[in-house]
Amino acid sequence: MVVARTKNATQKKGRSGNPAKAAAPQRAKRGATARDWIGGARLRTLTLGVVPVVLGTAVAFVDSTTPGDFGSWIGQDGHLTIALLALAVALFLQVGVNYSNDYSDGVRGTDEFRVGPARLTGAGMAKPRTVLTVALTFFGLAAVAGLVIVVLTQLWWLLLVGAAAIVAAWFYTGGKKPYGYNALGEVFVFVFFGLVAVLGTQFVLIEQVTVSGWAAAIAAGFFACAVLMVNNIRDIDEDTAAGKRTLAVVVGRPVACVLYGLFLMLPYVVLLWFVLLYFRSGFTYFSLLLALPALVIGVTSRKPRELITALQLSSFASLVFGVVLGITLAVQP
């Protein structure tokens, strides 16, 4: 059985993201419902889009030359509009990535060994081209929101950053040689859902990047890596059988668990920078009430259902971290 699986995975390993070149997925007994499509958006991962924009807005406020109070500051010079547009870019891009992954993994046959929630493409609930169209639609919406930011700020070079983000999102699992299949997924999420999202938000608001911006970006990036890592730890056996070389597969479960712990705890080390500058930001440590249980479950459990719980707790911990830190920075004296 193991030999047969390995052979089958090897045959599928080289498939492209083009449905015309891929074998059709196994048919499902029913078509996709609205609930299935919502599930395909993977709402529990959307914190990866919310947190960096919240943090980017907060550090832009505290590091602006004339911050005033947050209410008046966010309402002037189009700050609120730009911040909401940045949030739209992040969320649309995240949903687009999720549907793109569903499509690409499905047409490659990677989801054949999946034990988690069923995917739209892999389970045959939706046609591959339909899922691809939805993914591209969300990428398009992200591009439109980004273009509006560029027009409002006149920072035309940001078009290159936006294009790079969309290309990187697609080739995470799309194309003939997706880097997400070669242990580089954590690099992608750290760069784009950490550095680019936080620093980009700060820059479009105040046209500068600060040390606090870098600190917030690194914290958000590590949380994104933690969420991805625990997800890949859950799927490590299935990804190995399917020939998908995530970082967890490459380094093995014990090392992957150590890396997950580091990714999840390092934001709290970075938080010391803010506590030294703004005492109230120490309240952010209360998010450890979610992060510590996630850590224990993530490094000790091998059951997929429990690891899903660890993923959800990690995601919520990052959200609480970002929101509480953002609020404490906004109300600092």
Mind explaining what this structure looks like?
The protein is 70% helix and 0% strand. It has 333 residues and is mainly alpha-helical. Helix 3 runs antiparallel to helix 5 (79-108), helix 5 (79-108) packs antiparallel against helix 6 and helix 12 (253-277) packs antiparallel against helix 13 (288-300). The longest helix is centred in the N-terminal third of the chain and has 30 residues, at 79-108. The termini are far apart.
In short:
With about 325 residues, this protein is an all-alpha fold.
What is the strand and helix layout of this fold?
Layout (H helix, E strand, L loop, with lengths): L1 H12 L20 H7 L6 H17 L6 H6 L3 H30 L19 H26 L4 H13 L14 H22 L4 H24 L1 H7 L4 H5 L1 H25 L10 H13 L3 H27 L3
Arithmetic mean pLDDT: 86
* General shape: globular
Looking at how many chains there are and whether they match, the oligomeric state comes to: single chain
Please tally the β strands and state the result.
0
Keywords:
single chain; 333 residues; mainly alpha; 70% helix; globular
